[in-house]
Specification:
Blueprint: H1 4-25, H2 29-39, H3 51-63, H4 69-79, H5 84-96, H6 105-126, E1 133-135, H7 139-148, E2 156-165, E3 174-181, H8 192-206, E4 213-219, H9 225-234, E5 236-238, H10 250-253, H11 266-282, H12 284-329, H13 335-338, H14 343-355, H15 381-392, E6 398-402, E7 405-409, E8 420-425, E9 428-431, H16 433-439, E10 440-442, E11 448-450, H17 479-484, H18 489-493, E12 502-503, H19 520-523
Parallel strand pairs: 3-4
Antiparallel strand pairs: 1-2, 2-3, 2-5, 6-7, 7-8, 8-9, 10-11, 10-12
Length: 525
């Protein structure tokens, strides 16, 4: 990635790549294609063609409505993971425009993962604390960076270059450049930090890199002492500054100027010291005995504390291990582990929480409006297990999806199996308990039906019940009349109407306690 041939080509091609990117942004696709074919042809070997050229070529293909550009973008990311964010953004723009027919949930999930990985890796490379893992870079790379720093050689006193190993996206090659600048134009200025930041940005743009990234940090205004010591130990020095002192000692600052010895009031100081030391001389035996007792008791006290601290550490470690095991079992408390990217996985996570009798008040399984105060219902452990046994006994379920809504339901013959209504929020499917409360109802026998039977039904969820509510003809002139004439659940399924039908309980059954006198049909909602 940092080969000599690629770096030499980058010296002359950085301006070309920036020009091609500007042409693509302005919509001049033909000029951009001609420039790419001239300076970075496709038959050029990979070690001489920068990954950013492949990224721009994939961008150009997508602009021409060619779906093979997605493969070119992913190939560029494979060569240089630092392009994760740009590639994901280009694919998202294409899916929102000409590539809408190729938009799938799996592809959107992969783009979301690429964005998250790019942000996490960028934060890791931007932060330093002195514990980073550095290694010396290749010789040709050090020479290229040293040549790029030649215009600023008069401002630089010492420089160190290192390659950093990172935990996030380890194939993303990252360089750290530490500069000790001469303080003539930085000190005693109110805008010193802003000027220094712009100065480092210009240096970053001037350094040729074939893939990867570089961070330029300047001492002493933008560094930490621990980071400076770590760089001096492991980094490669530039400009023959191996013996330069980042922190000069006091003896090297100015040997000619010495502070004169102060001889005033020496007699007064001697008298004060004699007054303070006279009690110590009088109680010399008592002090010696105290010191001997302290020397004998101190090891015993240290041993006792070490023993008690060891037992305490063992108890704390045991508690932490039990807490970690509990969180591992309750995977549904975390969105990433629960995997709420499909309605079926959300329902499985919800049933797992019920089976474990988890009544955590803020589970990430419900929509945001399901946590409104005053409308929730909290269940005890036995009641949660009863809910799980009811839904678990229903067997396999069916999933119906329409846009951002989904319904998980069972056959109508199993009228005691309450369907679950879900909505997609922030890319994840969550149970819409408020919609269930306003849409469905349960009678005294524990059988469900649509609320407000005989009135206007909630047509937003009728797509999941085609056998009950046939979809009206879109060309019908009176769509309202056809909807009003749709049969109700009681008329079609033969369910007996009852005056004891009530709304489904509040949207958060795990947030409030339920009275023990409630029957099983009320718990099932």
């Amino acid at each position: 990635m940092f080969s000599a041939a690629c770096i030499s080509r980058m010296k002359t091609g950085a301006d070309v790549l920036r020009q091609v990117e500007r042409l693509l942004q302005s919509g001049q696709h033909e000029q951009a294609a001609a420039s790419l074919d001239k300076h970075f042809p496709e038959d050029l070997p990979d070690n001489e063609r920068p990954p950013r050229a492949d990224l721009l070529r994939g961008w150009l293909l997508l602009a021409r409505k060619d779906e093979s550009g997605v493969l070119a973008l992913f190939a560029a990311v494979e060569r240089d993971p630092s392009l994760l964010g740009l590639a994901a953004q280009r694919v998202e723009d294409w899916l929102d425009g000409p590539g809408k027919a190729h938009d799938t949930m799996l592809l959107r999930h992969e783009l979301t993962r690429m964005h998250a990985l790019h942000q996490a890796a960028g934060r890791e490379r931007a932060e330093v604390n002195g514990d980073e893992d550095y290694r010396a870079p290749a010789d040709e790379l050090a020479e290229a960076v040293e040549q790029a720093l030649a215009p600023w050689r008069d401002d630089i006193r010492a420089a160190w270059l290192a390659e950093r190993r990172c935990a996030r996206a380890p194939r993303w090659r990252h360089l750290e450049l530490l500069l000790e600048l001469k303080p003539r134009q930085w000190h005693f200025r109110p805008d010193a930090r802003d000027r220094l930041q712009r100065y480092c940005q210009r240096i970053e743009q001037a350094i040729p890199l074939c893939g990867g990234s570089i961070a330029v940090r300047a001492h002493p205004l933008a560094t930490l002492p621990a980071h400076v010591r770590n760089m001096r130990k492991r980094a490669h020095p530039l400009f023959d500054t191996a013996g330069a002192e980042m922190f000069p000692s006091a003896n090297n600052l100015n040997q000619s100027l010495k502070r004169p010895k102060n001889t005033r009031n020496d007699k007064k100081k001697s008298a004060i010291l004699a007054t303070l030391s006279s009690p110590l001389r009088r109680h010399r035996t008592l002090l010696a005995s105290s010191a001997a007792a302290t020397m004998l008791l101190l090891p015993m006290w240290v041993g006792w504390n070490m023993m008690t601290n060891h037992e305490t550490r063992q108890r704390v470690a045991s508690l932490e291990q039990r807490h970690t095991a509990t969180l591992a079992r309750k995977y549904w408390r975390r969105e990433e582990a629960a995997g709420l990217f499909s309605p079926g996985k959300t329902v499985h996570a919800f049933l797992a929480a019920l089976r474990a009798r988890d009544n955590h008040p803020r589970l990430p399984l419900f929509t945001a409006d399901s946590y409104r105060p005053g409308v929730g219902l909290r269940l005890a452990g036995d009641e949660l297990h009863t809910l799980w046994s009811i839904w678990h006994g229903c067997g396999a379920f069916q999933t119906h999806v329409e846009g951002s809504r989904a319904v998980v339901r069972w056959p109508l013959t199993q009228s005691h199996c309450l369907p679950l209504l879900l909505r997609r929020e922030q890319g994840r499917w969550r149970i819409a308990w408020t919609d269930m409360r306003n849409t469905l109802a349960i009678n005294a026998n524990g059988r469900w039906s649509f609320a407000h039977a005989g009135e206007q039904l909630p047509h937003a969820w009728l797509f999941a019940f085609p056998e009950l509510f046939p979809v009206p003809d879109a060309t019908s002139p009176d769509l309202k009349t056809s909807n009003a004439a749709a049969p109700t659940v009681q008329d079609t399924a033969g369910m007996r109407k009852t005056s004891r039908t009530r709304h489904i309980p509040a949207p958060t059954p795990l947030a409030q306690a339920v009275k023990p006198s409630m029957n099983t049909s009320q718990q099932g909602t």
